Amino acid sequence: MSRFVAIVLAVLASPMWLHGQGPASGSAQPSVTPAGPRVIGHGAFPVKVTKALDSSKLKDGDVIELETAGSFKLPNGTLVPKGSKMIGHIVSAKARSKGDPESQLTIAFDKLTVGGGEQLPVKGTVQAVYPPAEEPQGPNMSTAGTSQGGSMAGVSPGGIGITNSKSGSDTQSSSTPQRVIDPKATGVQGIHDLQLENGVLTSKGKNVKLGGGVRMIVHVDILG
Fold it and tell me: Which of 41, 73, 117, 168 has the CB geometry, 3.0–4.6 Å to 205, for a possible disulfide?
C-alpha cells in the first residue's frame, strides 16, 4: 500500500502535471474586449440609385455605390454636397425561384464620402424607398435639422413608379404626379409590389429591381 501511495504522490508532483494545471489557475488574466467605434451622430437623408440593383444579378457581399440626392450638414457642421458617394454592400440578394414566396434584397451602408474624398464610416439601413424624381426641386436639404444638431434630412419631390408584378418590382419613372420625399417616412412609397420591413426589401415578383434614379431615405449612425 505504501508503495502505491508513493507512486501517486510522484505523479502529482511531476513537471507535466504542474505545467498543465498550475499556471492556468494562478496566472489567468482577465480578457479585454477592444471598444468598437462609437456613434457620434445619427440622422436620415435621401440617396439615389445610380446603377440598377437587381436581386437576381447581385450576390451577398457585393459592393454598391449610390449618391446623395441633396446636400445636408453633418452633426459637426460639415457640409455634404449633393452627389456625394454613399458606399454599401449587399447583405442578401435572392431571386424568387420555384417554391419561394418572394424575392429579396437587403442593403447595408458603410461609408459616406465627404469633402476632399474623405470617407466617413457609417452604419446605415434603408428606411424608405421612393420612385425616381422627374425634376429635382424644392428646398435645400441643409434647411432641416436632426436630433444631433446637424441637418441630415430634407425634402425633394419625385415621380410615381410603374410595376410589372409578373417580372418583379420595376421602379422606372412615369409622367404621373410628383411624390415628395419625407425624411421621416418608412416603407415603400408609390411603388407597387415592393415591400420594406426592417431594412429588407421583398417582392412577389421574380426579382427585386431598383432602377436608376430610385431614391431611398437612409437612416445612418455616424461612427467615430
Answer: 168
Closest to 171 (Cα-Cα) out of 129, 199, 108 = 129
DSSP 8-state code for residue 22: H
Tell me the three cell numbers of residue 184. Answer: 421621416
Residue 111: partners with Cβ closer than 8 Å, 6 or more residues away: 86, 87, 88, 119, 120, 121, 122
Q: Quick one: CATH architecture of 39-223? A: Beta Barrel (2.40)
Spatial distance between the Cα atoms of 109 and 223, rounded to a whole number of angstroms: 12
User: What's the pTM value of the predicted model, to 2 decimals?
Assistant: 0.67
Exposed e or buried b per residue across 177-191, where buried means at least 16 C-beta atoms within 10 angstroms of its C-beta: ebbebbbeeeebbbb
| 36 grid coordinates | 468598437
Give tens-digit pLDDT for 185-210: 999 999 999 999 999 999 999 999 99
Direct distance between the N- and C-terminal alpha carbons of the chain, in angstroms, rounded to an integer: 70
